[in-house]
């Protein structure tokens, strides 16, 4: 059965969209037809609408199982902002609050009720088909031990299908491989669920990976290029989140740390300040993020390499949820791989985790399109390169690195395959430190044979040798590097080894910063709309992105709607948001356009004065021809001179007069306006000459 006649009007009225994305319409129709569904859709792909819209059309309530209180609150706030009756039920509420919610369910005053799996027992009296029309299980990968965020409390959800036999269950997640998908359906007892697997490709997110050299300064530069943009930096440890936060704060960056070592109140405050745009940057462990539905996160940085591609994909998905441009930057290092291997050591599923870490490492060190690698991991193949990752935009330059490879492999041999990468590089470079001196490595024939290559570059080359299989890390032997059967071909048979040169990012970074500096504009319509949105969000105590997303603001900036009808055509503007917020935003657009018109008019009139001046007309002739006063003409010439136009100021003010004004400026301590100067000269030096002299002095100072 199709329900299309009602779907689009409902979508526009409550959510402000004129059409569906991906497979949303098919999924909604399946749910309305009482069918169980498993939905795999990327973060920001529109999963929530797949159960929120049907909830408006069902007679009873839709019960939403959600893993975090913060996530429930965020979704409920968003629904209420759209004029939809929704609430959440969890352990943070008093008994009276919980009873009030149950009464709303009994009297059919709610359309959606969010609950954590741990709180389901308290809803026993309403868990029947008299009240429940649909069950949505969000973040469904948590139910599976094959998933990357396994939560045992999710496994109790198998009883739902028994209690609600004829009620459709829709399970949703952003990341689930084939094994995890099968496990989800078995655990929830929905083996015949209709599967919807949309594209994993988040085209709006630009992927970039960099070596972790001097990463703190790289991050500081990165943030400096993106003022007013919200971002998350993921770190492996609590200690590194705190240290990084302090470094960023010392550079004037509004940053906070988030990790499990903080108490509940501290974590809640950091999260809410970030959601409400009061904090720009959060340095966090992976404990942060699942509860963040913030659509205007513009970038995500991984300070350390994640342990698997599922986690990486889930975390970068928190950027650009509104569909506008976003950036994912990953720093990787040899040390990260070693640390993650230590974490895995002894785990019950050690071999599985090692395999997943290896795929993550391959992604980080790739020399081909990163998006192809990422999507292929989830079973999706790209026919062409993405054009929006660092490898596609700056393809690596290969060279014959056979001699470099032979030197490194020779040292590994001389050290009897018993030393880690750091010691090998020290021997290659002829370092005189405790290890090389105590173990008498300085006596080896190959000691110092690579002293013409920097330590950092040697690390880059040896990692490539590991990646290409010419040597390997013996994790069980203190991370010693050992030869493989491929090594002999290079050492003794001259097999050619292709390598890439290290990328020097400092020069590119400076060019980018200069470009950003020149192009940065603060008085754009988007910036003014953003500030208006922030003002309203603080007044109403709801996150700014719940008023309008960045994507909606950008469309308002592009379309510049001046009426209610025009404003309602903007994607993301529904009837309620038009009534509550629309008129203020229309007024801001009108004000901006009026100011722009005046500015353009002013610019045009100054331009006309310049054209007449270049034709050789005198001040008096320009004033008479344009029906303006001579002081106005002088003010135009002053502006034109400041902008670098070819104006001969000596025609209008002498060097002696400029010197007198310079002296007056010093004695008067740079006063505001022209009147103090006029009075200083006892009204004997004309206003126009004072203005022109000050313009000359200002330009000299610049």
Helix content: 40-55%
Biggest β-sheet: count, sense, barrel? 7 strands, parallel
Number of strands: 17
What is the CATH level 1 assignment of the largest domain? Alpha Beta
Number of domains: 5
Distance between the amino and carboxyl termini: 72 Å
CATH architecture of the largest domain: 3-Layer(aba) Sandwich
> Which percent range describes the beta-strand content?
5-15%
Q: Strands across the major sheet, in which order?
A: 3-4-2-5-6-1-7
Number of helices: 31
Radius of gyration: 32 Å
Query: From the helix content, strand content and strand pairing, which structural class follows?
Result: alpha/beta
Structure notes:
The chain has five domains: 4-197, P-loop containing nucleotide triphosphate hydrolases (Rossmann fold); 205-393, P-loop containing nucleotide triphosphate hydrolases (Rossmann fold, 3-Layer(aba) Sandwich); 398-502, Arc Repressor Mutant, subunit A (Orthogonal Bundle); 521-600, DNA polymerase, domain 1 (Orthogonal Bundle), CATH 1.10.150.80; 616-701, no CATH class. Helices cover 49% and strands 11% of the residues. It contains 31 helices and 17 strands. The strands form four sheets. Strands 3-4-2-5-6-1-7 form a seven-stranded parallel β-sheet, sandwiched between helices. β5 (132-137), α6 (159-163) and β6 form a beta-alpha-beta unit. α16 (402-414) packs across α17 (421-429) and α27 crosses α28 (630-642). It is flat. The protein starts with a helix and ends with a helix. Its EC number is 5.6.2.4. Keywords: ATP-binding, DNA damage, DNA recombination, DNA repair, DNA-binding, Helicase, Hydrolase, Isomerase, Metal-binding, Nucleotide-binding, Zinc. Residues 215-363 form the Helicase C-terminal domain. It comes from Sediminicola arcticus.
């Amino acid at each position: 059965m199709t329900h299309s006649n009602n779907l689009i009007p409902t979508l526009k009225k409550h959510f402000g969209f004129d059409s569906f994305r991906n497979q949303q319409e098919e999924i909604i129709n399946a749910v309305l037809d009482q069918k169980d569904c498993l939905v795999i859709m990327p973060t920001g792909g529109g999963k929530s609408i797949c159960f929120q819209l049907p909830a408006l059309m069902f007679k009873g309530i839709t019960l939403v199982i959600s893993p975090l209180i913060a996530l429930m609150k965020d979704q409920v706030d968003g629904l209420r902002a759209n004029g939809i009756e929704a609430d959440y039920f969890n352990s943070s509420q008093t008994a009276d609050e919980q009873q009030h919610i149950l009464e709303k369910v009994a009297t059919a005053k709610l359309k959606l009720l969010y609950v954590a799996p741990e709180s389901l027992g308290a809803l026993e009296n309403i868990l029947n088909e008299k009240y429940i029309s649909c069950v949505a299980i969000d973040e469904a990968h948590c139910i599976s031990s094959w998933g990357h965020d396994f939560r045992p409390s999710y496994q109790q959800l198998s009883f739902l299908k028994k209690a609600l036999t004829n009620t459709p269950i829709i399970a949703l997640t952003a990341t689930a491989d084939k094994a995890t998908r099968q496990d989800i359906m078995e655990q929830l007892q929905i083996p015949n669920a209709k599967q919807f697997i949309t594209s994993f490709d988040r085209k709006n997110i630009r992927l970039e990976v960099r070596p972790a050299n001097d990463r703190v300064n790289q991050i500081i530069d990165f943030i400096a290029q993106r003022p007013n943009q919200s971002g998350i930096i993921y770190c492996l440890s609590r200690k590194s989140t705190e240290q990084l936060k302090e470094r960023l704060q010392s550079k004037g960056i509004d940053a906070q740390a988030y990790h499990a070592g903080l108490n509940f109140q501290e974590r809640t405050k950091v999260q809410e300040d970030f959601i409400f745009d009061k904090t720009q940057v959060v340095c966090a462990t992976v404990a942060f993020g699942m509860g963040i539905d913030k659509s205007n996160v513009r970038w995500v940085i991984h300070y350390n390499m994640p342990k698997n591609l599922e986690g990486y994909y889930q975390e970068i998905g928190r950027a650009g949820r509104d569909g506008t441009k976003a950036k994912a930057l990953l720093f990787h290092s040899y040390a990260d791989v070693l640390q993650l291997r230590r974490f895995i050591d002894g785990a019950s599923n050690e071999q599985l985790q090692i395999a997943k870490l290896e795929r993550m490492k391959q992604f980080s060190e790739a020399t081909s399109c990163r998006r192809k690698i990422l999507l292929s991991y989830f079973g999706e193949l790209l026919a062409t390169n993405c054009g929006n990752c660092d490898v596609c935009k700056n393809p690596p330059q290969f060279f014959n690195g056979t001699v470099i490879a032979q030197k490194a492999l020779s040292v590994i041999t001389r050290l009897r395959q018993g030393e880690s990468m750091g010691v090998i590089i020290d021997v290659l470079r002829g370092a005189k430190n405790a290890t090389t001196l105590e173990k008498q490595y300085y006596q080896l024939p190959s000691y110092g044979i690579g002293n013409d290559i920097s330590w950092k570059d040697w690390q880059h080359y040896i990692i490539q040798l590991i990646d290409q299989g010419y040597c390997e890390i013996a994790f069980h032997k203190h991370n010693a590097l050992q030869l493989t059967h491929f090594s002999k071909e290079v050492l003794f048979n001259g097999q050619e080894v292709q390598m890439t040169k290290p990328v020097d990012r400092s020069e590119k970074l400076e060019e980018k910063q200069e470009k950003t500096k020149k192009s940065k504009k603060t008085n754009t319509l988007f910036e003014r709309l953003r500030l208006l949105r922030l003002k309203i969000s603080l007044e109403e105590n709801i996150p700014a992105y719940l008023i309008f997303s960045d994507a909606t603001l950008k469309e308002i900036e592009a379309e510049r709607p001046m009426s209610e009808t025009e404003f309602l055509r903007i994607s993301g503007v529904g009837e309620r948001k038009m009534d509550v917020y629309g008129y203020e935003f229309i007024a801001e657009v009108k004000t901006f356009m009026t100011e722009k018109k005046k500015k353009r008019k002013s610019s045009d009139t100054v331009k006309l004065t310049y054209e007449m001046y270049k034709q050789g007309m005198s001040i008096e002739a320009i004033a008479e021809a344009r029906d303006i006063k001579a002081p106005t003409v002088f003010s135009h010439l002053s502006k034109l001179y400041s902008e670098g136009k070819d104006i001969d100021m000596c025609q209008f003010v002498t060097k002696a007069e400029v010197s007198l004004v310079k002296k007056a400026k010093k004695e008067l301590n740079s006063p505001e306006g022209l009147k103090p100067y006029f009075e200083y000269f006892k009204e004997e030096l004309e206003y126009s000459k004072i203005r022109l002299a000050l313009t000359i002095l200002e330009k000299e100072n610049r």
